[in-house]
Amino acid sequence: MAVPSPSPVYSSSQGEVLPPPGEASPSQGFELVEPATSKRRGFVFSDAPATYLLVGINCAVFVWMVLRGVSFQSPSPEDLLRFGANNTSLVLHGEWYRLLTATFVHVGWIHLATNMWCLWNLGLLGEPLIGPFGLAAVYLLTGIAGNLLSMAVDVLSRTDSIGAGASGAVFGIAGILIVLLSNRRLPIPWDELRRLRRSVIQFAILNLLIGGASNFFDVIRIDNSAHVGGFLSGLALGFPLVPRMTAGRERYFARQKITFAMTALLLSLFGYWIANLSQS
Predict the structure, then answer these.
(1) Which of 272, 265, 235, 250 is nearest to 138 (CA)?
(2) Within a 13 Å sphere around the CA of 277, how many CA atoms are in the beta-carbon half?
(3) Quick check: is 167 catalytic?
(4) pTM of the prediction?
């Protein structure tokens, strides 16, 4: 999957973004930093701690699965379920934790490598805009949203699929980036913002088309409903944050907490609706 390469962006010395225009100071101001993949800087954990941590957790879970006898290439459905993959029937029978754990389980090394490449690049681009807490929250919330939409499709179509992978969360990060990169008040040249935003949009469209086309072939099965759910929830998360991006760190992160809390509540209500729908 093609993803936009990280580009130099403005961030605070603490990895948190965006004071009001004209209020920057040496202690809380913003400097132009190179992406964490820069050869000059090398690997610096503090540049994007949430991105590195999420990639590390995904890789660690996969290694754990392989060490416990799961196929490196093609895990069985039983193995995927044993390690926390999403399954509508099991979730509706009380195993709601699968909505979260499934975002860290992958169907073979190619699936893992593809998702981690996308997460790495989108995370390095997005973390300076939303901070480490914000990126982790977006990953978890949009990943769960994607799995919930996949469940809803299963219930409505009376199917019972098994889903796993970080791709719903990756699409969620892409969705919120499309919205946040539309903010002309960011201390980044508008031409650069448009270029980055266009790259993310192309990534989302291309991979949604690939996911949709997979339904007509037996070579690989992609759960596009999880992609759509993650992407739409990412877009929705971005809109409340844009007005506070240049209002100072305290206001911006306060808005983040409210937005994420309300999203968690709405996802809980959506899950409750799905549970009731399955009984009708």
Answers:
(1) 235
(2) 18
(3) yes
(4) 0.85
